Amino acid sequence: MKRYDAMFKRDAVELLLTSGKPLKVLAVELGVCAVTLRDWRDRHLAQTQPIETDGKKLSAQQLAMELRRVQKELVIANRRNEILKKAMGILSQEPQPNDMPL
């Protein structure tokens, strides 16, 4: 079993939390098992102090879960916007004169 020092673990978790890359992708890039990276992240988040937001104290782990949920929603919304833009482009095109029935 490969051993990683504390600095590598801390840097890997920091990169995971700030890069926006999916955990599995980053784990492959770092050459570690995704389960191991997830465990490091969870341990790190469990040690951090709660953060107050909107009058509620939330743990870093709760905030990370909320961030992932919102990121997924954003991806879906962006896809919908792209579809709507394409549809508006198609609908706003003027018909060609030869497309008109006689």
Which helices and strands occur, and which strands form pairs?
Blueprint: H1 6-19, H2 23-30, H3 34-47, E1 51-53, E2 56-58, H4 60-91
Antiparallel strand pairs: 1-2
Helix pairs in contact: 1-3, 2-3
Keyword list:
102 residues, mainly alpha, 4 helices
Oligomer: single chain
Strand composition percent = 5-15%
**SSE arrangement, N to C:** HHHEEH
Are there runs of 5+ residues with pLDDT below 50, and where? none
Strand segment count: 2
Which strands sit side by side, in order, in the main sheet?
Answer: 1-2
Largest sheet composition: 2 strands, antiparallel
Assign the structural class, choosing from mainly alpha, mainly beta, alpha/beta, alpha+beta, or little secondary structure.
mainly alpha
Q: What is the C-alpha radius of gyration, as a whole number of Å?
A: 23 Å
Tertiary shape: elongated
Mean pLDDT: 87
> In whole angstroms, how far apart are the ends?
78 Å
Q: State the helical fraction.
A: 55-70%
Number of helices: 4
